[in-house]
Design brief:
- Helices cover about 35% and strands about 30% of the residues.
- By secondary structure, it is α/β, with parallel strands linked by helices.
- The chain folds into two domains: about 140 residues, HUPs (Rossmann fold, 3-Layer(aba) Sandwich), CATH 3.40.50; about 130 residues, Elongation Factor Tu (Ef-tu), domain 3.
- The strands form three sheets. The chain has a six-stranded parallel beta sheet, sandwiched between helices. Strands 9-10-13-12-11-14 form a six-stranded antiparallel barrel.
- Helix 1 links the parallel strand 2 and strand 3.
- The longest helix is centred in the last third of the chain and has 21 residues.
- The chain is elongated and about 75 Å long.
- The two termini are about 20 Å apart.
């Protein structure tokens, strides 16, 4: 997959969006662009924005850049066009966006967006305006309805963030086929887990990582292309009178040091709340149960 922000010479079929969670609605747009590219003998292109847009909206990342780019590539995207979200771009009129960006920069022959798409200065253009302008410039435009859950909720990055705050990570997998990912650098901890036979990696999460409900999760960590089941604790450690909130994971079956490395922890299921145990033995017994449960969930859970 080619990543660029310069003029594209090849003709393209383009999916436009922030794509900050790559839920099923996002992927449906992208797969449509991929199919159209094959039909038109063109390149499948995703048009998205740099991190300035997330900073502008003060929103937490649902996916790391690494994961997002890998999924784009797996879906069959040929070109990832990353638009700088600066004043020059924000001040483009809807017509200028179609003429200068779609027609000139992207060499676009087909474009697909969601029905809630907004573009142009002050978000003055909508999906129907895009269709009308594209028609004038000879670009085929398709508008997709929003995807909804079985309960009728609109599937969106905002919904995913709300579910994460409630610890409903299973539902996130259901609507996005992707587990929540917490990324960060491995730092030194108190090594209480090591003393109990449950060594953990403590991570300092990226500052804009997705906020999740405090508790104990079944999860997994991928190290050198091997996925290991894990128990992840988000919050404090009351049994050890530790009030500092942190993220730590016991990686089942892994032996080695990861200090100062950047890792990603994928949450599969909320298992229980954080509890203060009356003794270390009681805590160890619970961790054994958590370990067995986490292994079972890891084996049973399907994700993208």
């Amino acid at each position: 997959m080619k990543i660029c922000n310069s003029d594209i010479q090849e003709k393209t079929a383009v999916a436009i969006g922030e794509f900050n969670s790559l839920h099923m609605g996002h992927r449906r747009l992208i797969l449509k662009a991929v199919d159209k590219a094959k039909e038109k003998n063109a390149y499948a292109c995703v048009f998205t924005f740099d991190e300035n847009l997330e900073k502008h909206k003060n929103s937490q990342k649902v996916l790391s850049k690494k994961n997002k780019y890998k999924i784009f590539e797996d879906l069959g995207v040929d070109i990832l066009y990353i638009q700088k979200f600066d004043n020059s771009f924000k001040n483009l009129s809807p017509r200028e966006f179609v003429e200068n960006i779609l027609k000139v920069k992207l060499n676009c022959e087909y474009v697909v967006v969601g029905e809630n798409f907004k573009f142009g200065k002050n978000a003055s253009g909508d999906a129907e305006m895009l269709r009308a302008l594209c028609d004038k410039y000879g670009i085929e435009c398709e508008i997709f309805p929003l995807e909804k859950t079985k309960k009728g909720e609109i599937i969106s990055s905002s919904l995913i963030r709300d579910l994460a705050k409630k610890g409903e990570v299973c539902k996130i997998i259901e609507i996005s086929s992707l587990p929540v990912c917490i990324s960060g650098r491995v730092v030194h901890g108190r090594k209480d887990g090591r003393k109990m036979g449950f060594p953990t990696v403590n991570i300092s999460p990226d500052k804009d990582t997705l906020f999740c409900k405090k508790g104990v999760y079944a999860s997994f960590v991928e190290i050198e292309k091997i996925k290991y089941p894990a128990i992840t604790n988000i919050g404090n450690a009351p049994t050890f009178e530790e009030n500092e909130e942190k993220v730590e994971a016991h990686i089942i079956g892994f032996e080695g040091e990861l200090y100062e490395e950047n890792i990603e922890i994928f949450l599969l299921k909320y298992m229980r709340e954080i509890s203060k145990f009356s003794s270390i033995d009681n805590l160890i017994n619970q961790l054994e149960k958590d370990k067995n449960t986490a292994i079972t969930i890891f084996k049973e859970t399907k994700y993208y």
